[in-house]
Design a protein that fits this description.
Length: about 210
């Protein structure tokens, strides 16, 4: 069964989470704690930071650091649309997504809840047996692939492909074409939401600049 999310409802949640990221202009919050997701500085921040194999950018989203890299590259690619609204990309409405992912990792929600494997227990593995990690797939990889299709990353010379987990492969999609064939409505919504929202922010930025 393919989960379906209302993109507008989801973005309300994302914006609600965003005040935690509003302090991203510094590395710590008011209490001196790190406000970024765990290992943020070690995650890939550009598409070409991921391996290229057989003319494809390959990402293994069942590794916490690589899934976090999808978020980080998405944040970086969209940063130009939020320059007028805060320094260091702090006003980016997508911040809530990696912050939630970091919280899930930090609290052990991405680990195998059955303890049948060591996945997620003291390592960066994301378990396909975790409800949290499976739902998060649709809040990370689908928006990411929607952004690829919408052209947010510019002209990408390689196809982008996710590597599947060892189990339950049929529960997920792995490329723009694959996801479009399986969940076209959700892909359309993410593509449209990214295009429309970021276009409006570009207009607002130009308006602010010319005032």
């Amino acid at each position: 069964m393919w989960p379906y999310f209302s993109i507008k409802a989801l973005l309300i949640v994302v914006v609600a989470l965003n005040p935690a990221a509003a302090t991203a202009q510094s590395d710590t919050d008011a209490n001196g704690g790190d406000i970024y997701p765990p290992l943020w500085d070690f995650a890939p921040e550009n598409l070409l930071d991921f391996p290229v194999k057989d003319n494809k950018i390959v990402i293994y989203p069942w590794n916490y650091q690589e899934r976090l890299g999808a978020y980080r590259s998405l944040l970086k690619a969209s940063a130009k649309y939020f320059v007028a609204f805060g320094s260091q990309n702090s006003a980016n409405i997508l911040w809530g997504l990696p912050l939630q992912h970091g919280w899930q990792f930090r609290t052990g929600r991405l680990a195998d809840p059955t303890s049948g494997t060591s996945c997620g227990h003291g390592n960066l593995c994301i378990s396909v047996r975790s409800w949290w990690s499976c739902m998060n797939y649709y809040l990370s990889i689908i928006p990411f692939l929607g952004a690829v299709e919408a052209g947010l990353f510019g002209e990408v010379q390689y196809e982008v492909e996710m590597l599947p987990p060892e189990d339950r492969r049929d529960d997920f999609c792995y490329s723009v074409a694959d996801c479009r064939s399986r969940i076209p409505k959700l892909m359309d919504e993410w593509k449209a939401e990214i295009y429309i929202n970021f276009s409006l922010r570009q207009i607002a930025r130009l308006f602010t600049k010319n005032k």
